[in-house]
Automatic annotation (TrEMBL):
<protein>
    <submittedName>
        <fullName>RusA family crossover junction endodeoxyribonuclease</fullName>
    </submittedName>
</protein>
<dbReference type="GO" id="GO:0000287">
    <property type="term" value="F:magnesium ion binding"/>
</dbReference>
<dbReference type="GO" id="GO:0006310">
    <property type="term" value="P:DNA recombination"/>
</dbReference>
<dbReference type="InterPro" id="IPR036614">
    <property type="entry name" value="RusA-like_sf"/>
</dbReference>
<dbReference type="GO" id="GO:0006281">
    <property type="term" value="P:DNA repair"/>
</dbReference>
């Protein structure tokens, strides 16, 4: 299954900065990002996945200014929590997510996040 989030998410540095400013500001940033991800994915996936899944992320950025770990760390957390909240995954623990991989690309005009989810017994 292939999913596309048609925008980029804040990085880990932005989340840490918000947390340091005020703990509720960090929580609001995560909640707002999670809501945006749910809206973007709602039309693309409606049924629960067979677990454990393997997730391949392609982080497409508008430029190379942000570090790769800054891009993916906070983003994976937001996306996986959104999938749990949607009821697509039961949880985001060891029994539910076998693993994940990250790849990166640049597209100045169309930053996005592409996710391939492989379910047991199915090819992406």
């Amino acid at each position: 299954m292939r999913l596309i989030i048609p925008f980029s998410l804040p990085g880990l540095n932005e989340y840490i900065e918000a947390e340091r400013g005020h703990r509720q500001k960090g929580a609001k940033l995560k909640r707002d990002c999670q809501t945006s991800v749910i809206i973007a994915l709602r039309r693309q996936i409606r049924t629960p996945l067979r677990e454990p899944v393997f997730m391949r992320y392609l982080w497409v950025e508008k430029n190379r200014r942000r570090d790769k770990d800054n891009i993916s760390s906070f983003g994976r957390k937001v996306i996986q929590d959104a999938l749990v909240k949607m009821g697509v995954l039961r949880n985001d623990g060891w029994e539910n997510i076998e693993g994940f991989s990250d790849s990166f690309a640049v597209d100045k005009g169309k930053p996005r996040i592409e996710i391939e989810i492989e379910e047991p017994g199915k090819k992406p």
